[in-house]
Amino acid sequence: MSTKREKFSVLIPVYKNEKPEYFDEALQSIYTQTIKPDEVLICVDGPVGKDLKEVIKKYEEKYPRITRAIFYGKNRGLGETLADGVNECKHEIIFRMDSDDISVKNRFEKQLEMLKRTGADVIGSNITEYDDSMKNIFGLRKVPQTKQEIVEYSKRRNPMNHMTTCFRKSKVIEAGNYQDMKGFEDYYLWIRMIDSGFSFHNIQESLVNVRAGKEMIKRRGGKGYLAQTIKFEKVLKANKYISKKEYYENICIRIASAMIPSTLRNKFYKTILRSA
Asked: Which residue from 182, 202, 181 is spatially nearest to 192, judged by alpha carbons?
């Protein structure tokens, strides 16, 4: 790969419930990439404890030229925090990263190469899901590769693994940036970008190792999560992104998934949602 490349930022939000040791591992995987970022922007969503502040301070002192943190006084939610983060990033190419996941060593290199090759506006990849220890594999979430496959898939499920994405800042802002849509902030952005004619591509490799397991499965169930899901599906139908038939089909699947016991949902994720 040519040594000449476009500069890029990494955007990583964190909030009080994150475990400092997970956050430290996530940041370490950023700074040890085969191609180093030109900016790492940490957006701190509300008050956090001393341990998380110490992790941030450690990397600010170790990599002062490229690391900066923005502290927000109150917890505002992921949509608003990411929208501000996108606006604050110095570079046109932005990589997303979650505060408890680990990027494989050549993730940035592979995605920058694919951005150049395809000219796409958003590039993602598959993920490997682990338990909290990062020792036992929970599943593999594969996502569709080409733009047309991504468009079709997006009518049923989120076509991108959010923590794997990199995108062009100007295109995200043109589509309205991240917005408040609890639980679906990224999915809602992709839909609006697809509607705006922007292009997507998913690399068919796992470039991020994700902490998932039982806690993630629990969060994907219950009346609260179902209410958020129905709200989102109604927005898609109102905007004519999906048909009435597709809306009802989606709702039936979401109800079944959200309201079954966690043990059955765990099996559903492993055998159905993670087998495609």
From this structure: 181
The reply to whether 148 falls in a domain is: yes
Per-residue pLDDT of the chain (276 residues; tens, 9 = 90+): 445 789 999 999 999 999 999 999 999 999 999 999 999 999 999 999 999 999 999 999 999 999 999 999 999 999 999 999 999 999 999 999 999 999 999 999 999 999 999 999 999 999 999 988 888 898 899 999 999 999 999 999 999 999 999 999 999 999 999 999 999 999 999 999 999 999 999 999 999 999 986 555 555 667 888 899 999 999 999 999 999 999 999 999 888 877 766 555 555 555 555 544
Same domain, 195 and 265: no
Residues 6 or more apart in contact with residue 77 via CB below 8 angstroms: 45, 180, 182
Helix (H) or strand (E) holding 133: none
Which among 257, 201, 260 has a CA at the least distance from the CA of 233? 257
Indicate whether 2 belongs to any domain.
Answer: no
Beta-strand relationship, 39-45 and 200-211: unpaired
* Domain count along the chain: 2
